[in-house]
Design brief:
Layout (H helix, E strand, L loop, with lengths): L1 E10 L4 H17 L3 E17 L2 E13 L4 H10 L3 E8 L23
């Protein structure tokens, strides 16, 4: 299973109960397809940079999850069909690599600058 990160924008025209159900639906689609939810962050209502499907605002949700790579296409198609999700992006997370401080190789040539 690979690690993924998904950012979802849900229609802000929904009432509070429908909005809660839409947030739950985002997670349910992942779990139904065999994924494991790692974390869900609700960023709340924000203004969009440009109008998307006649919406000026959206409700943002960030979801970190694990999913088999062969299931990601199916999950994308389910989100496309969900009318409450106005925009989304799914990204594969790359493990953080540690940077080791190696001593720099000494300069091979002398440089001279006028002081």
């Amino acid at each position: 299973m690979n690690q993924y990160e998904g950012l979802f924008i849900i229609s802000s025209a929904l009432d509070a109960n429908t909005l809660r159900k839409a947030v739950a639906d985002v997670s349910d689609i992942l779990t139904r397809e065999g994924g494991k939810i790692v974390s869900v962050e609700e960023w709340g209502r924000r203004k969009l940079a440009y109008m998307v499907q006649k919406h000026h605002e959206g409700y943002y949700i960030l979801v970190n999850f694990d999913l088999a790579p062969d299931k990601i296409a199916r999950v994308r198609s389910l989100y496309i069909l969900n009318e409450q999700v106005i925009r989304f992006i799914l990204l594969k997370r790359v493990p953080k690599q540690e940077i080791t401080d190696k001593p720099r190789e000494e300069a091979r040539y002398e440089t001279s600058f006028a002081a």
